[in-house]
Amino acid sequence: MRSDNRKEIKVCYGPRCRDYGGEALTVRLKTLGIDSEAGECQSLCPHSPVVHVNDKFIPGASIDEIIERL
Q1: Domains along the chain with CATH numbers
Q2: Contact assessment for residue 9 and residue 55, using Cβ atoms and an 8 Å cutoff
């Protein structure tokens, strides 16, 4: 966790995650005013898109699941 208590969100930008919703999640987070970063491939392609919120992976992530973790 970051020292300022903000959540760190990384959206996998490997080809499959990006194409299976990762890019759309990044856009949606931005429209909600939530910062996220492009993350490196985590080799979890069957579970696309994968999002990492601090120390937890969210396989098959949706915007609702990400917000729940915040």
Answers
A1: 9-69 (3.40.30)
A2: no
User: What are the φ and ψ backbone dihedral angles of 38, each rounded to 5 degrees?
Assistant: -75, 125
pTM of the model: 0.83
- The 8-class DSSP code of residue 41 comes to P
Nearest CA-CA partner of 24 in 15, 34, 11, 41? 11
Query: What's the CA gap between 10 and 22, in Å, rounded?
Result: 10
- Tokens at residue 35, please? 């910062």
At residue 37, does pLDDT exceed 50?
yes
Question: Do the Cβ atoms of 70 and 58 come closer than 8 Å?
Answer: no
Q: How far apart are CA 68 and CA 5, in angstroms?
A: 16
